[in-house]
Design brief:
The chain has about 60 residues and is an all-alpha fold. It has one domain. Helix content is about 85%, strand content about 0%. It has helices spanning about 5-15, 15-30, 35-55. The longest helix has 21 residues, at about 35-55. The radius of gyration is 15 Å and the shape is elongated. The relative contact order is 0.14.
């Protein structure tokens, strides 16, 4: 198996719901760096359910 085949496989298997969730969490952390830890946890859980809803729609 060549490296090109491996890259192609990873792109096919990418979980787009997880990718969306990860991007939103990173944006939250950089957008609100002074948020308390409890707000970080709440935002992460809310974004998790939002990404699950996105996966159901798509």
């Amino acid at each position: 198996m060549s490296p090109e085949d491996d890259t192609n496989f990873l792109l096919k298997e990418l979980n787009w719901g997880f990718a969306l969730w990860l991007i939103l969490v990173v944006l939250w952390n950089f957008g609100y760096p002074s948020a308390s830890p409890i707000l970080d946890v709440i935002a992460t859980v809310v974004l998790f359910f939002a990404s699950k809803t996105f996966r159901s729609v798509v």
